[in-house]
Amino acid sequence: RGIVTCEAAELFLSPRLKALSDPFLLPDMEEAVRVLMAARERGEAVVVFGDYDVDGVTATAILLETLEFFGWKASSFLPHRLEDGYGLNLEAAERAVAQTGAKLLVAVDCGSTSFETVAALSARGVSVVILDHHQMASPPPPARAIVNPQRAPQFRELCSAGLAFKLAHAITKRARELK
C-alpha cells in the first residue's frame, strides 16, 4: 500500500473522515443524498432492502444505523434466500414497502440489473436508490440514483458495505454543512 512512515501508518490505521476520499466522487452520490434528505424532511419512511449475503447484510446494518442516527424513519428488509429468490425482485420489494409503509426503497448489494422491479415501484410512487457494486444492466434501472463504482474509474474495489460506508460519509458531510 506504499505506507512507509509511522505517520502514514497511523493515518491508515486510525483515519479521520476528512482524510478519506470524497464520497461525492462516486456517481449519483449527490442525488442519493438529496433524495434521502428530502424523504427525511417530509417525514417519509425509508426501507433499506439488502441482499441476504454477508456484504448485503453488513451494508444494510451500516446504512440503517446511519439513517436512524440522523433521524430518518428507517427500517430494513432482508429477503429470504429460498422464499424470495435472488436480488431486488418485485414480489419481495413490494412486501418490503407494504410492511414498512416506505415511500423510498434503498437497495443495497442488489438492484443494478432490476429494471422491471424499479420501473414498477416507481410507477407505484416509490422512489428507489440503488447502492450496488455489481455489473450494471443496459439500460440501467430507472432509479432516482444508482451509486455504483462500475460507472466510474475510481472506487472499483469497493464492495457494497464499502459503498454503504461512503454513503454514511456523504450523509455525515452534508449534515455538518447544514449545521
What's the arrangement of secondary structure elements?
Elements: H1 6-13, H2 29-41, E1 45-50, H3 54-69, E2 73-77, H4 81-84, H5 90-100, E3 104-108, H6 115-123, E4 127-131, E5 145-147, H7 160-178
Parallel strand pairs: 1-2, 1-3, 3-4, 4-5
What does this structure look like?
The longest helix has 19 residues, at 160-178. This protein has 179 residues and is α/β, with parallel strands linked by helices. It starts with 5 loop residues before the first helix and ends with a helix. A five-stranded parallel sheet has the order 2-1-3-4-5, sandwiched between helices. Helix 2 crosses helix 7 (160-178) and helix 3 runs parallel beside helix 7. The protein is 45% helix and 13% strand.
